[in-house]
Amino acid sequence: MTKPPRTPSKPLLGDVDAPIRSRARRRRDPAQPQLILDPMPERIEPCLALLKPRPPKGPQWTYEVKWDGYRLAVHIEPSGVRILTRGGHDWTDRFPAIAAEAKRLPVSTAILDGEAVVLDAYGRSDFGMLQQSLGGRGGKRSSRDAIFMAFDLLYFDGHDLTGTELASRRHLLEGLVPPGREDAIRLSEEIDADGETLLRIACEHDLEGIIAKDRNSTYRGGRIGDWLKIKCVQSDGFLIVGYEKSTASFGGIGRLLLAARKGNELVYVGGVGTGFNERSASELREQMDKLKIGKPAVDTGRKRNAVLVEPKLVAEIEYRAWTHDGKLRHASYKGLRDAADEAAVYDLE
Fold first, then answer.
1. Domains of the chain by range and CATH?
2. Which residues form the ATP-dependent DNA ligase family profile domain (predicted)?
3. With 80 as the cut, is the pLDDT of residue 142 above it?
């Protein structure tokens, strides 16, 4: 015999339309630890590469191409993206393509370390092209040609990675920015090769040089030797202390007069009269003419048609060697470093 239906029971919580909620068994102890997440730093002091004449030996060293551009940190935060220069200046608006690509990366929070570059037709980074895309030194133009070559990951989804060894940081970076990307953010790939062989190949392809990194090192700010740079051609920053006029040269600049630091003093190290084009010379002349002075900042000897300027502009100069009397040999002008980049001025030992 069929049993009669049971009387419907009351809904679980009485009111069918009421949300289902649970009740804590007891109040949470305020002293109980929360999930461990590291606070995201406003800025991390960048690790800088120490210049060496030859690549290091040993299995702990890994190698990358040396990129010639502006060192940047890309901060991906809940509120948006920030792009900071080496000196901590906010240049987010100057790299819109990089900022837009950072928003598309599959991560909630991160800090990527890398270099903004513009590549030439052969895939080599060209500092002059990068500067022109930004409107020259002191310019305010945004560059849509610049791409970001990411080579380290310092913060990832709530975790500070600066105390983690490089090999693990690179593993996470390659998951976030896979090799072979052709977007505005790309991976600066590690190259498994003998350092001497890689340097020779880099120089044959007219690259600036290579970077060697200790794969067991943590991330520490400053120039401490965990990262090394080995250059094909010497390139350093020198202060412009004047120029010689010339009616036959671009911008009327016959030669720039350059100085290096020696302790608290400046020392004249010769001049450079090549590497200019019409545009770069015109922009440089405009910058220098705002800084004219009557008394020399350093003794340059007797120079014909010399215009003296305050030593405030840092020129990136490529050179092959030094003469016996301490002057640059086979020097060529590459461009002006921006103040926000905090470029180092060559220090004479």
1. 50-231 (3.30.470.30), 234-341 (2.40.50.140)
2. 148-255
3. yes
